Amino acid sequence: MPKILRVLFWIAVSLLGALALATIALHRGEQINALWLVVAAVATYAVGYRFYSSFISAKVLALDPLRATPAERLDNGRDFMPTNKWVVFGHHFAAIAGPGPLVGPVLAAQFGYLPGTLWIIAGAVLGGCVQDFVILLFSVRRDGKSLTEMAKSEIGRVGGIVAYVAVLSIIVILLGATALIVVNALKSSPWGTFTIAMTIPIAVLMGVYLRRIRPGKVLETSVLGFVLVVAAIFGGQWVSETPSWAAIFTLTAPTLAILIIIYGFAASSLPVWLLLAPRDYLSTFVKLGTISLLAVGIVALRPSLHMPPLTRFADGTGPVFAGTIFPFAFITIACGAVSGFHSLISSGTTPKLIRREPETRMVGYGGMMAESMVAIMAMIAASVLQPGVYFAVNSPAGIVGQAPEAAATTISSWGFPVTAAQMASLAHAVGEQTLYNRTGGAPAFAVGMAQIFSNTLGGEAVMALWYHFAIMFEALFILTIIDAGTRVGRFMLQDALGHIWKPLGRTSWYPSILFTSAVIVAAWGNFLWQGIKDPLGGINSLWPLFGICNQLLATVALCVATAIIVKMGRVRYVLVTLVPLCWLVAVTFTASWHKVLDPNPRIGFLAHARQLAAAGANPRLIFNDRLDAAVTGVLVVMVAMILIESAFECVRVISGQKSAATKEAPFVMTRLAMEEQA
Amino acid sequence: MKVESLPGCARLSLRELFGLIVAVLREIFDESAYERFLDRSRLESSPNAYAIFRQENEQAKSRRPRCC
User: Fold this and answer.
1) Residue A227 falls inside a structural domain
2) Do A98 and B68 make contact, defined as CB atoms within 8 angstroms?
3) What pLDDT band is residue A22 in, cutting at 50, 70 and 90?
4) Confidence check: pLDDT of A139 > 90
5) Model confidence pLDDT, tens digit, residues A559-609
6) Nearest to A34 by CA among A428, A286, A297
7) Contact of A185 with A471, CB cutoff 8 Å
8) How far separated are the first and last CA of chain A, in Å rounded?
9) Pairs across A and B, CB distance < 8 A
10) Structural domain tally of chain B?
11) Is residue B16 within 8 angstroms of chain A, CB to CB?
12) Cβ contact A344–B65 (<8 Å)
């Protein structure tokens, strides 16, 4: 394309993006079309990718196409292996895309669609994509080292320990929070519970088929599993309409929590690959398919957003979670904007597959852009709901009351009209007994998704099927994360305990497996139990705690990246990571201060503990609040230590007291470039 | 299909695009890894070979974090 046309093309894309952003930011009083959000995001991502990531590639990281990557140098056909960049992109995206970008935006929609959308777009382009990209490249240049190892070698021992503790904490809190989402989605829902229960025999069947009948044919087996799961959704409808069966599958939140805890322990400690591996494949299959389907549905239907751009809850009195836009919108939406967890994937499997250094740009920066687009779709799914319906579904009984009439009256008094009859009709349409107090984001997302899908295919008659398809998709997805996360946590604990007593570090020694599995499951099970007993719905405490942990991990990752950039002698470009780092420090430290010390009992853990103590509440609830405060405080102190240590390290390098030596693997000329030319 | 032999740049024909999507899916779903395992260990695909492949991969897969 001639240069003048390229220039005109990018000017047009930039103007289109600016117009879309102006429309979503300045439109007041009228509904806007969801496509404006899509256009704003796509245009901004395109400009960010074309120009900003290109600048980072050339000036900051100096990507070298002639430098052999560990995939080439250490190729063993297993972990290390040069792989086509599109394949690595797909692999990386499948690993980073979880429930976070779906749930976070749904919860943040209580502020209106505007704050969350702007944060998703700006946070991704300037923060999340940059973090994923630079950590991926730095790991590639260090033989695929993990974030913890890089923190240790580039910053110091404290950095390594903090990164380790942050990773383990985030895994534990993530598992507790996501398990709570499943419990809230399935409680008193025989249809949903039956469908999810059926995924267990379906997965076993898939395992037998995969092992005995068609070894290795995973795609074929996953298609078969998907067909069976869809049949289970239809079966769930029959179950919910048959009183004797419905009674069996109508479970309370504590019962569901106990079942999930038992499941997590069994998944981590028993050799149940026959169940877990096929479930993992099925979950990935459904995840990729559903996200694609949702994208097509939004573009094809172009729904209007009923949620206003800003709601009255910008003042911090929101029913879904308490707290003002700053800092709470920015920790509620982590995955989708900036997620520290991604740095674990970017320094895990992915760097060992990268064939050429320049491909880190597409995989790291581009992969996060795709994840951010998923978050935009979740924001749309939440915002197509009538605000009254959105708040009825997402508000805990402790805020709006148990009785349908009382809840509808409270929500209507906030300026978001809804009636008990309207909610009853909606619950009937989606095949549920009630949709009130379904905190956690998943049911609201499922209702929004069902509305979009049912308008595209099948009409209102099949809304219940779409709703339960969405619930099945989210629950399956989360249960897979619970079993995988428990095992990852168990391995991490075994690695650490092995330094204290060698046998505990042996991953095949059964007493160690049972002990460490029990510790990890007890840790996240405690948070889950706390969530279901919390009169404010649990998500009010757990999701901000998870967001703080996740963003603190991103702070650690950006700290490591900033220290490396300084040591590379590129101080003049340090703002690329320093600006998002400063932003995250401001967000996480402010949020932590509020969550621990805010005098409002709906925000501050300690204030809530005092309120409960004054009311003579169950000591267990008081302990939970104090535990949350302690976890938050310890993490903040540890991250402050790594910040100080890396700041000293940078100052020493800049002032010349220390040589600017990084711990990169030595340069080796690639053979791949020559082979490609030949 | 050899993943490494796939074209990695723009201007793909529809057929190449389909091939690329299939390759990505086969990689995500470990089909390609199984083929590489069979090549490496000079085995024919069978229930036993698949069981060995699963055992070999289980430890590495279990340690991979999956994001939230």
Assistant:
1) no
2) yes
3) very high
4) yes
5) 999 999 999 999 999 999 999 999 999 999 999 999 999 999 999 999 999
6) A297
7) yes
8) 27
9) 132
10) 1
11) no
12) yes
Note whether residue B43 is domain-resident. Answer: yes
The whole-number pLDDT of residue A91 equals: 84
Q: How many domains does chain A have?
A: 1
Residue B57 resides in a domain? yes
Following DSSP, what letter does each residue of A442-480 receive, concatenated?
HHHHHHHHHHHHHHHTT-GGGHHHHHHHHHHHHHHHHHH
By the 8 A CB rule, do A516 and A167 touch?
A: no
Band the pLDDT of A273: cuts 50, 70, 90: low
Closest residue of A to B68, CA-based?
A98
Sequence letter at residue A111: F
Question: pTM for this structure?
Answer: 0.92
Q: Exposed, middle or buried: residue A618 (CB in 10 Å: 0-12, 13-18, 19+)? A: exposed
Give me the CATH number covering residue A540.
1.20.1740.10
* Owning domain of residue A28: 3-188+251-654
Q: Does B13 touch chain A (CB under 8 A)?
A: no
Cβ(A658)–Cβ(A646) below 8 Å: no
Domain with B23, as residue range(s), is 9-62
Non-local CB neighbours of A134 within 8 Å, separated by 6+ positions: A56, A60, A61, A364, A561, A564, A565, A576, A577
Does some domain include residue B2? no
Q: Is residue B30 part of a domain?
A: yes
Nearest-neighbour CA in chain B from A97: distance (Å):
6
Q: Is the ipTM reported for this complex over the cut 0.90? A: no
- Which residue has 């029959």 as its token pair? A238
